[in-house]
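A protein record in our archive is deliberately plain, so that people and models can read it alike. The record that follows is passed on verbatim for readers who wish to inspect the format.
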Amino acid sequence: MLETIDLDRQLSRGEYERKLLLHQLQLRELAYQLYCRKRSLVVVFEGSDAAGKGGAIRRVTEKLDPRGYEVLSIAAPAGEDKTHHYLWRFWRRLRPPQEKQVQVFDRSWYGRVLVERVERFAKEAEWKRAYREINDFERQLSEAGTLTVKFWIQIGKDEQLRRFEQREQTPYKRWKLTDEDWRNRQKWDAYSEAVEEMLIKTSTNIAPWTVVEGNFKWFARVKCMATIVKALSRELKYKPTAELPTHAGGHA
């Protein structure tokens, strides 16, 4: 699946600014519908290191009411989390729609079949069992009225190296680059194999994966926004405003 996508897909700056702003305003409208209907949206972002997950998440949440959304970046289990099933630390952080209508996971329960598989933090029987456990987990979310939208942002190996080197040379970005990132890069093929299997085994009718071409960040951000808007519009049977207001300005 990853080898068939066109990583060179791009947008002009004008297209990017217009489409991004339109989808942000549409998402704000749809988030209000979630609030009125007491429904929830869970958005999962996964991807290669330096794929641009953080930038995409910022654009998704930028125009939402801050009282209605939460971004969760959950690290490896520690303390009480370590004494429970791996899904527990995610499950217990999910909020009812009267508290948060939109919850965004910057990495998620899919670590079980990605990093824990490749780094052998989980036994083979454990990560193989996780595909079924995760599908059941997401089915339960759906039955409780939660829509789950999942993104895998893919970048090329050369583009990843370019971004790593750029981070290394930019003082305010240097903190993002760690020794672990370089180690993970050496296991590119092993991670690619794990991603392929994850996409095949956990893309379901109720929670399909969207693979995002990430070499060009403007294209990736707009595709994520458009996918969320389309999925929510279909789920809620609600059509948000299709055009930008005449007074709307540009966006970067």
Remarks:
- The radius of gyration is 18 Å.
- The chain has one domain: 2-236.
- The first strand starts at residue 40 and ends at 47.
